[in-house]
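MODEL INPUT / OUTPUT PAIR
PAIR INDEX: 1
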Amino acid sequence: MSKIAKQFLRDYINEQSSSNTDDILNATKEMFKDVPQEVLEAEMDSHLGYDKNDLSEKDATNRRNEYSSKTAKSELDPVKIDIPRDRYGIAIKLRDT
């Protein structure tokens, strides 16, 4: 793990005012929920060829179009994720590894 990642985790745990291992585990669960969501958003950015809030003129006719909610199983807890979709109905898929 890089120094930046370690420092980020330390800062995050300190911000949560964690005083025991249960508090740290709960903070980790909350932080984990954001990871798959951000991965899916980044994949949609790559799929469409532009960032989510890019207001510039685009050559493509395909755009973001709503979300569909899914619950993904994880070792920490089930995680509710909003799957981004495009106008053509393509949803970025989670992969089992």
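PAIR INDEX: 2
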Amino acid sequence: MSIFLIVDLIENLDRFIDNKVPTKNYSYWNDVVKILKVEFDKRNVKIFQIGTQEDPIIEGVDAFFNDTTFKQSCYIIQNAMCHVGIDSGPVHIASALD
């Protein structure tokens, strides 16, 4: 079984709620992933990114899921060993599923 770390880059919550208010944005994901990959690769930990089709792919992630349903995103987050993200819906989901 794979071990997962989830990074979400959802810059707005249009997929989850019906509004157009952007959430907080974090500009250093490429740096974060680069730092984490050094140790994670040694331990066979994979970094998965969830988001929307409009989100840029973070350099170095092992997989990018940009077309998941709300339910699929919840499943991925629930089965991850850790979730790292900005203040957005997926962070609150991860907190609720902990």
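PAIR 2 NOTE: The two ends are 20 Å apart (CA to CA).
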